[in-house]
Amino acid sequence: MKKIITSTKAPTPIGPYNQAVLANGTLYISGQIALNPETGELMDNTIQEETEWVMKHLGSILAEAGMDYSNLVKCSIFIKDMGQFAQINEVYAKYFKADPPARETVEVACLPKNVNVEISGIAVK
User: How many domains is the chain built from?
Assistant: First the structure.
């Protein structure tokens, strides 16, 4: 059985996918970008602001599934510029006081809406 998880505090998907799918106690969260869910505007004045919005969206989706950041076991980070790795890590680290999830960070040529960072996650209850 799978259950579709949707949070009004995270942006509506911009394609044929769901924000997240819960299957057998595992939550698969689609890549999140820094769109303001109320206005649809990109929130990308700085890479730190952009990353903060992405992390908040992940948190909103986790909460909708009855979870929090401590339930994340794996994250994938896609960035346009590896030169921003340290700034992204600075924001990302604030959400994991102990035992952060496994992850990879990959530099890519382009992301949806030409954003600088996209993060997806897998969480377990």
Answer: 1
The CATH number given to whatever domain includes residue 73 is: 3.30.1330.40
Looking at residue 58, its pLDDT comes to 98
- Enumerate the β-bridge partners of residue 112: none
Residue with tokens 């076991």: 73
Token pair belonging to 40: 């649809």
Please report the pLDDT score of residue 38 as a whole number.
Answer: 95
Domain that holds residue 58: 2-124
Nearest to 87, CA basis, from 58, 123, 26, 45: 45
pLDDT digits over 46-104, tens only? 999 999 999 999 999 999 999 999 999 999 999 999 999 999 999 999 999 899 999 99
Q: How far is CA 76 from CA 8, 41, 48, 69, in A?
A: 22, 23, 17, 14
C-alpha to C-alpha distance for 66 and 46, rounded to whole angstroms: 30
Query: What is the 8-class DSSP label of residue 79?
Result: E
Task: Kindly report whether the global pTM for this prediction surpasses the value 0.90.
Answer: yes
What dihedral angle (degrees, nearest 10) is formed by the CA atoms of 96, 99, 100, 104?
A: 160
